[in-house]
Amino acid sequence: MQAPFVTAKSEDVPIYKDFAGQTFGDLDIELIARVDGILTGMFFKEGQTVKKGQLLYTIDPLEYETKVEQVRGQVAVAQSNLVNAQEELKRIKPLADMNAVSKRELDAAVAKDKAAKSNLTSVRASLRNQEIERSYCNIKAPIDGVIGLSNARLGDYITKIGNSSKLNTVSRLDKVRVQFTVSESDYLRYQKQIKAGDKITDLQLILSDGSTHPSKGSLNFSDTKIDPTTGTVTIEAQFPNPDKTLRSGQFAKVRVLLRTQKDAIVIPQKAITEIQGLFQVSIIDDKNTIQTRMVEVGQKIGVDWIVTKGLKPNERVAIIGNQFIQPGATVTPVPYVADKKENALSLND
Fold first, then answer.
1. Which of 77, 135, 252, 335 has a CA positioned 20 to 30 A from the CA of residue 310?
2. Residue 308, Cβ density class (10 Å: 0-12 exposed, 13-18 middle, ≥19 buried)
């Protein structure tokens, strides 16, 4: 009877762990309306690049321009009143020096001059406020970046309070941040690695279609606290995104190289049989006889499994599968060849 087999191999095996995460722009800035009014203009294409200072939205400015003109009129009146007060003070002061007018009249002229100056300062400040409010009718890009899908359309009434104030988001995507959570035990293990001088530097981003982002990432920071409700801590990694294929809000896996296990014995998972928590393999000895052996296993690597005890390098391990082969049976060893589906799974994992 033929028995496919694999040769146990000893090799350095990188141990990875995947964590579910979500992407964010290097900088995500919400465009929020600061005045109420009808949306009268949109000057961009959704999903396209915009430049800092570029006009994006306009809100009907008529109400705010009217307020500006009203306050400008008040400024003109205040300036006129100040000129009159100054002229009156100039006229009264020499007369007061000659005792031609009473001190009370002089004090009144001085007070009027001060009040006119204060009033002018006040209305000028009010004018600046109204001009600033008028400027809020033009919403411009705060940074160079990519603008998202607009939450408002032409003709919508926009308010500065509530959800309607959130018009859009501009994201800087030269780099992306990926936030993911790890368990408290994983976090403590990571901290021990840092203290031992073994920093985690190999980070890969696995996208939802199974592809791997071409650029490797680096750790940014970890949260200052562990969430008591989940027992996890949030960690952020950063990945270069030169072609801007990654966008904010994507779900992906961060694959972290935890360590490299030296001289690990690796065989396919299908060569191992589990019975009530015990693991065994079928060895083909030098006489081509099947021998059953108990083993201990460690980390799974794709479609393979690390055997930590019970197996030596170069031993032949039979892939029994559904075949009924008794221990002690003599077989014809045939090298096992994994099919394409298994190879693809191994690569994706």
1. 335
2. middle
Give rounded-to-5 percent helix, strand, coil for the chain. Answer: 30, 40, 30
Tokens encoding 185: 């035990």
The pLDDT value recorded for residue 326 is 80
CA distance 254 to 16: 10
Q: One-letter amino acid identity for 208?
A: S
> Whole-angstrom Cα distance, residue 96 to residue 88?
12
Q: pLDDT per residue over 258-268, tens digit each? A: 888 889 999 98
CA distances from 86 to 79, 105, 244, 334 (A): 11, 14, 64, 111
Q: At what angle do helices 62-97 and 103-135 cross, to 10 degrees?
A: 160
- pLDDT tens figures, 27-44: 999 999 999 999 999 999
Q: What is the dihedral of CA 143, 144, 145, 146, to 10 degrees?
A: 100
Cα–Cα distance measured from residue 215 to residue 243, given in angstroms and rounded to the nearest whole number: 11
Nearest alpha-carbon partner for 32 in 170, 157, 168, 171: 168
195: three-class secondary structure by DSSP: helix
Q: What is the pTM of this model?
A: 0.67
Q: Where are the beta strands (DSSP E) in the chain?
A: 2-7, 9-32, 37-42, 49-50, 55-59, 138-140, 145-147, 157-158, 166-183, 203-206, 218-222, 232-240, 251-268, 273-275, 278-284, 290-301, 304-309, 316-318, 332-335
265 residue type, one letter: I
Percent of the chain with pLDDT over 90: 57
